[in-house]
Specification:
Blueprint: H1 2-24, E1 31-34, H2 39-42, E2 59-67, E3 73-75, H3 83-95, E4 100-105, H4 109-116, H5 119-122, H6 125-140, E5 146-149, H7 164-178, E6 183-189, H8 190-198, H9 207-210, E7 216-220, H10 248-258, E8 265-269, H11 288-293, H12 306-319, E9 322-325, H13 344-353
Parallel strand pairs: 1-2, 1-9, 2-4, 4-5, 5-6, 6-7, 7-8, 8-9
Antiparallel strand pairs: 2-3
Helix pairs in contact: 6-7, 8-10, 12-13
Length: about 375
């Protein structure tokens, strides 16, 4: 009997271990990389194939697709001049068989409120209809690991939406029931969170309500601040600052208030530099390699150093389970900056996450 009980105990432990490991594997991994797949061509730069993206990228993030109120799923019209191109590049990425997460959702919070309406009280009628359109899209583009839902922030003219959290929960439940293998994340702007939990205008989502049916959350830091002289050597998502309240230290204090579960939280960082929004630089000008090859023309760019990227990688480890990066294909893929390896900014984030100090790179030192 004792022997039988011991075997039963060991069996239960093994089952629990397997279940725990399976649960832990959900999500994009510690280092997700956004690969647009078309920006280099638009900018006249060397095209970077998906096969050249670092193996250390635990998954590929793709911006993105939207759905309208007629439940038609389409390529992001803001991503490039031809929305079809967005879908074509997504298909190229999916053929590489790497875990791929696609941004998805309605264009605005206003449209979301029309979609969600009274989902919690009508059995998810709108949600069920939307899933038909989404199924057609997923069937046509097989291999998508998960979706990242966006545009849930209150806009400037938003009005209170009673039951917002409960209605969104029903939508998420319908989506998970319709596509049980699909992982579902939600992205929220860091700037919005600082505003919402510093001086809220109207009530917003209750994260505690939707967390049980959400696989992960992404806090976007891509546009945490505009580029100013104070942020030249820290990037637009500084750890601390005397000139802005939009800092990672302030965000750190807000995350527990907002009830984001640490074990499900990721942070999305901008790899490339920013510039004064009033100047003439386009996104094609704002690359790490340009900073290295034309320092006199880029001295006023706001850009992280490898040291500050190390700090932000550590921040992601201390306050979440991983990080996202933007536009990995434009992060010096041929190592013009003569750093230890190509994609230096990405690896500096990864080093910081793993508790490693990156080797200095002379051409990336801000003077």
């Amino acid at each position: 009997m004792n022997f039988y009980n011991s075997l039963l105990l060991i069996s239960n432990i093994l089952i629990l271990t397997v279940q725990t490991q399976s649960q832990a594997k959900k999500g994009p991994g510690i280092a997700a990389c956004n690969h647009p797949g078309f920006m280099n061509a638009e900018c006249g730069l060397l095209e970077v194939d998906i096969s050249s993206i670092p193996d250390a990228c635990t998954s590929i993030i793709y911006d993105g697709v939207f759905v309208d109120l007629n439940y038609h799923v389409y390529g992001d019209p803001c991503a490039c001049t031809h929305a079809k191109r967005v879908i074509d590049n997504l298909d190229k990425i999916l053929k590489a068989k790497r875990p791929t997460y696609v941004y998805y959702g309605h264009m605005t919070q206003s449209e979301w409120t029309q979609m969600l309406a009274c989902e919690a009280c009508n059995g998810g009628t709108n949600s069920l209809d939307e899933m038909k359109g989404l199924k057609a899209f997923l069937d046509e583009h097989p291999g998508i690991t998960g979706l990242i839902l966006t545009a849930f922030e209150n806009g400037k003219y938003a009005i209170e939406f009673p039951g917002y959290s409960e209605n969104l929960k029903k939508y998420l439940e319908v989506m998970k029931t319709s596509f049980p293998q699909l992982e579902i994340g939600i992205e929220v702007s860091g700037t919005f969170l600082v505003d919402q939990f510093t001086a809220p205008v109207i009530p917003w989502l209750d994260i505690k309500v939707i967390a049980p049916v959400t696989d992960f959350f992404v806090i976007s830091l891509l546009f945490l601040n505009e580029c100013t002289n104070d942020l030249i050597s820290t990037g637009i998502a500084p750890m601390t600052s005397k000139s802005t309240n939009y800092t990672l230290e302030n965000l750190k204090c807000i995350l527990p208030q907002a009830s984001f579960p640490k074990e499900k939280t990721y942070f999305r960082y901008k790899l490339n530099p920013s510039s004064d929004p009033n100047d003439s630089n386009t996104r094609c000008n704002l690359t790490i390699q340009k900073m290295c090859t034309n320092p006199s023309d880029t001295c006023l760019f706001c850009s992280d150093t490898l040291e500050s990227f190390n700090e932000k990688g550590k921040f992601a480890k201390d306050n979440g389970v991983g990080f996202f990066t933007s536009n990995i294909d434009m992060n010096d893929p041929t190592n013009l900056c003569k750093c230890e390896k190509p994609f230096a900014s990405f690896y500096a984030l990864l080093d910081g996450f793993n508790g490693i100090t990156s080797k200095p790179c002379d051409l990336l030192i801000r003077k």
